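sorry for the late reply, my laptop died twice this morning and i had to redo everyting from scratch. anyway the thing you sent over, i finally got around to it. pasting the sequence first so we're on the same page, its 870 residues, then the predicted structure underneath. double check i copied it right bc i was rushing
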Amino acid sequence: MTQASSTKKEKSFFTGAMGHNFKFNVKDNFRLMIVIFVLHFAAAPLLLITSLAEILTTGRHGGFDDGFIAAAVIGTGLAAASGMLCALTVFKYLYNKSAVDMRLSLPMTTSQRFISDFLSGLFIYIVPYIAAEIISWILMLAGHLLCDGKTFTYVLPDQSDPRQEKAYSWVCNFFEQAAPFLWRGMLGGLMLMVMFYAVTVLAAGCCGNIFESAAYDILLNILVPVSVYLGIYSVSSNVTGFMETVYEQKIIPYCGPFGGAYGLILTLENLNSQLDTPYHYYMYSPSLIEPLSFGIWFLLFTLCTLAVIGISYLIYRKRRAEDTGKPVVFGIFHHIIMTLGIFSLCYLMVVDGTQNFVPVIVITFIVYLVMHVIRNRGFGKIVSGLVIFAATIVLSIGSFLLIHDTKAFGAGDYVPDPESIASAQITYAGMFGKGSRNEGIITELTDISALTTLTETHKQIIEYHNNNDESTDLYRCFMDDTFMIKYRLKSGRTVMRSYYDPGMTAMNTLSTLDTTGEVTQSRAEHVKRAVTEYVIASLKEYEENSDYMGIKQKRTDLYAELTPQWIYSSGGKDYHDSCRKGYSELPEDFLDRLGDCLYNDILSESPEEYYSPSGKVWQLNIFNMNYIKVKESYTETMAYLSSCGFDTFPEPTEELVRKFILSPIDGIGIAMSSQPLIEYMTGEDFPTATFYYLNGGYFRYKDTSITPYTFSAAYEYYDDLLTLIKHSYKEYKSDESCYTISVSGNSAVISEEYNDVAERVFIRMTADRASYMAERDFFGSPYERDENGNTYYGYSEYLTKFIEFYGKDKIVSALSCYYDSEAAEETYKNLTEWAKTDTNFGDEYSEIIYDELAAEGYAVVTEAHTVPLD
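ok and here's the structure:
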C-alpha cells in the first residue's frame, strides 16, 4: 500500500501512534471479546465444572451430558469462526476510500500500521480464548487436588435385585488423565486460531470489498486441504497398494486451519494410543505409518502460520489505496482460487473412474462463469476468461488421465532394486502369523537375500493385481488381512505399499523367509511380548478395575490352563488338576520365564517342525488373556511347564472330543486343498462357509457339510472324525494336497499321512448332504433352499464335478467303509441321478453365465465369486 511517508522519523519502531491505534481497535471491539469469551467458556471450562461438581456431589463420573457436549461444540465453532469477524473488523478501512485516506494520514509507516492492526485484531480474537483456558487449568488443578487419587463411593440399584441398593467404589484419576490432552488441545487450538486469522487477513488484503473477502477466505480455507486430499486420492485410486494415509498425514495437517485441525486430532489419537500400550499394540493391526507427534506438528504448523503472516504482510504492502472497492485487488489470487475449485470439482466427479467428462465440463463452466461475473461485475473480459477456463479444465482433466494411464508415472509398478535398499519393514512374521491376539508383528529385513525375496514377492503381488481386476485368490479367504511394505532406500527415500489381497503365489514366495533369522527373531520377540508385556498390562487393568456388579477383580481369581489345540477352556472340570493352575500356584516370575522359554524354542525350531509339525500341539490359556500354542517340539517350554506343575499334558480323548468339540458345533466340514491353511481362532469367517477343494478349484456354499440338524449321521463315522481331529494342525504346510477340517469355525490341516481317512470322510459327508437335500426335494428348486431359508447354490453342479474328480471306483470304495457294497453302489447311483437334476436359477441370465464360465474352465459360480478349476 503506497502513501506519503511521515516527515518525522521515530527512533523506535513501536511508536505512540501504533499503541494508540492498537488501543482504539481493542476498545472498539471490546464487546466482541466478551461474546467470544462466553462462547469459549461454554466449552472446556463448563465441561470441567460439571465433571467436578458431579464427582464431589454424587461420587461418580458418568460421562458428559449430551447437552453440555452440544454446547461445547457449538460454542467452540462459533468462537473459532469469529476470527473472520475480528480480522475484517480491524481491516474494514480497506473497503472504504474515505477510511483508507484517514488511516493513511496517521503518523505510521505501512509496516507499523499492519503490525498494529494485525496484533490488535489477534488480541481481540485470542485473549478471550486464553482467559477461558486459564480458568480451565484452575479447574483442572482444583479437580486434581480434590478428587484425583481419592476413593469415591456411590449407590445404585443392585443388578441382581433392583429392589436393593448397592455401593460401588472407584479411585478417581479423571483430571490427571485429562491433563495431557487439555494442554495439547489448548496450544494446538491457539495455533489453529492464529492460522485462521492470518488466512483471513491475507484474503482481506487481496480483495477490495468485504463480501469478496469473506467468500474468498472461506473458499481458500476449504479448497486447499480438499484439493490436496483429492490429488492424493487420485494417485491411490490408480496405484494398487499406494498408501494415501501416509501422504495425507504428511501434507494435510499443514494445509490451513481445517487441515491443522485434522493434524491436531491425529496427534491426540496418537497420545491415546500411547496410553493404551501395550494393550493397543496387540489388539489392533500393525502399521508401518509413523504416528504424527504433537511436537513435530506444532513446530511445522507454527512455521506455516508464520509464512502465511509474512505473505499477508507482503500483500498488504503491495496493495494500493486506489484499489479500494475492487472485487479482487490481485487477479492471481482469483485464478488460484478458481484453479483449486475446478481441480477439486473435476477430481470429485472423475475419481470414481468415469470417462464421461461432459457433466464435469458443464458444471465447472457454470461455476466459473458465476465467479467471473461476480469478479468483473458483468461479462467483461469474457473471452480471456473462457481461454483461462479452457486451459484450467484441460490441465485438470489431463492431469487425472495422465495419472490414470501412467499409473502415477510408473509408481504403480515400481519395485526398488534389492541393492538400493538399506532396510525394509513388513507386517509379517510367518505364514501362520494371524491368530488370537498375535497380530501387530512388524519384521525388519536387512539381509540382501531376504530383500531379494521380498522384492520378488512384491513383483508377484503387482503382477497378480494387474491380471485380476477383482481378486479371488485363496489367500483372501484364508488371511483377510493387510500386507504392508516399507522400503528405506540408501538414497534416503522411503517407499511404502499396502496390499489387502497379496495373492497366494506371492505369499508362498514370501513364506520361504519364515525360518530365516530375521523373520524367526521377529516372531519369537512378538510371542515373548504377547506373554509378558501384554498379559502383565492386562493383569494390572483387570485387578485395578471393578466390574459393573461391584465385585472386586483379583489376580488370585485367575488361572492358567493347558488343553488340546481344539479346546480353549474346559473350566477345569474334565481334566486332571495338573492341567489347570491358579495364579497363586504359579511362580512370581511365571510370565517372564515362560516368555523366555517360548522365545528360545521358536528360535531353535527346525523348518520341518515349523511347516509340517509331526508332534502334538496344545493351547495354553494364560489367565483368559491370551492363548499360546505349545508344540511337543518346544522342549524348553514343556520342561518349564512341567516344573510349574503341568506334569500331565492332556490328550483329545473320545469323551473330551465328544463334549467340547463335536457336541456344541455350529457345523463341521472337510475340504481338500493344496494351499497352506492359517488358523482363525475367532471363528468369524468359517462358520457360514465351507470350502470344497477339487484340484485347485473350490466350491462355496452357504451351508456347512454337516450342520446340527443333519449331524446324527456323523456318529456313524465318529471314529474317523476323532482320528482326523487328533492328527490335524492349525499351522501346517505341505507340498502335497491335504484335507482340512473345520469345526464350529476353527479350522486345521489334516496331516497328509491321513489323506485316505479324510478322503472317505469327505466322500461320506458329501453323500450325507446330498441325501439330506434329496429327502426334502431341494434339488431342482429355484434356489435349493432348506426349511431355515439357507440357500445351496447349484449343489447338483457341485456333485457333477465331485463325481468327475473322484470317479466311481473311489467313491464306492470310500462308501463301502461305512455301508455294505450293495448300499454303497446304490448311494453312488443316487449321487449320479441327483447330479443330473437341472438347477433352475430363476432366469436365463444365470444359465448363460454358467455356459460361459463352463466354456472358460470355471468350476462354479456362487454369489458372483468364481475360481478356475485348473
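DSSP finds 28 helices and 20 strands in the chain.
thats about all i looked at so far, will dig more tmrw
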